[in-house]
Design a protein that fits this description.
homotrimer; alpha+beta; Jelly Rolls
Chain lengths: 144, 144, 144
């Protein structure tokens, strides 16, 4: 099945990057009508979420919420000093599965897909893999 | 592949709604023996989780835990005033992938699927999509 | 599609167990070249995450972060007394979808898959299901 990587260059230590239009471009480049696209985040100090994209303040508030939940100092043992980034990765996750119908990504009205940078700036990537629905008419022809 | 929407009417500002029997009904209406069902939450102030359904107090405690983690006032910037709801959406997620065997949902003994309302009451929906396993005997016939 | 269970015996009340090599073994035992493997955690006091596996201190810091976010006493109502475990399950999730290419699990450089025990020690299990990519050359032959 079609698969690939999406490169993302982050510019801050912590930020949410709207990658929805990049995913749209992937779908436009693939001959897929319906199915799902799995997104996989291969990093341990970054996450993948869906949330509101209309008001950029929502992203800032989400980051503020994370900073409140995950204190910078908690007697962490990991010597690199980025344990809060690893904890935020646990909270935001490594996977998303999105629906495709009529060749288009099926998101809710206010939803956008965000890459979450928690230890940047860095060059990052997201891996994607499309599982197309079987072509039902074709299958029916075979079965008859 | 079969797909559709499940309507959910929530009755509180914040609540967990057990939607397991609705998912069972979807499976009963589809000629599927084995595969997966992907659930997608198209909302940015609602979530989707699996947790214990036997004692309703578990749901109340989960909501209490969320309220503790996500303070109502944290100097949020989003003018709508529902930033805690967006943060709880991040924590509970937008996706679930459930297994189907012998036409039935494969959950653990104590597991139920819950829609998480964080900014209700509202009329909500969950989108679902079934990926059936290929019919192996049929495929073998073709290959021989 | 191939599916099964992975048994896990935990030895502590709370711990992260690296199950990556067990997943590798599953793939080695299956004739799959590319596709995805869905992992499903059937427990309501356990989770499933991906995070750094190189330095064991990262796991300890993640558990410390969870203990900070989820207080042991918050006036919980559930009589079993393990509400913090249920809340940690909500935060870490019940699902992972991992990519397979060339017969191998596609993880990032520092990533390992961890089973999260939040109410052990116990005998636990993880269910898995592989969705293989259709064999494109074979399909092409049929279509021609």
């Amino acid at each position: 099945m079609p698969n690939g990587q999406l490169k993302i260059s982050t510019i801050s230590n912590v930020e949410l990057v709207n990658i929805t239009s990049e995913i749209d471009k992937i779908l436009q480049s693939q001959p897929i009508s319906s199915g799902v696209i799995h997104l996989f985040n291969p990093h341990t100090t970054a996450g993948l979420i869906i949330n509101e994209g209309a008001d950029p303040d929502v992203c800032l508030d989400i980051l503020q919420g994370l900073a409140h939940m995950v204190p910078r100092n908690l007697g962490y043992k990991h010597r690199e000093g980025n344990s809060p980034s690893h904890i935020m990765t646990m909270l935001t996750g490594s996977n998303l599965t999105l629906f495709i119908e009529n060749g288009k990504l099926q998101l809710g009205t206010w939803q956008k897909v965000f890459f979450c940078e928690f230890d940047g700036p860095r060059t990052r990537s997201i891996r994607w893999k499309i599982i197309a629905d079987p072509q039902q008419p074709f299958a029916n022809t075979l079965a008859s």
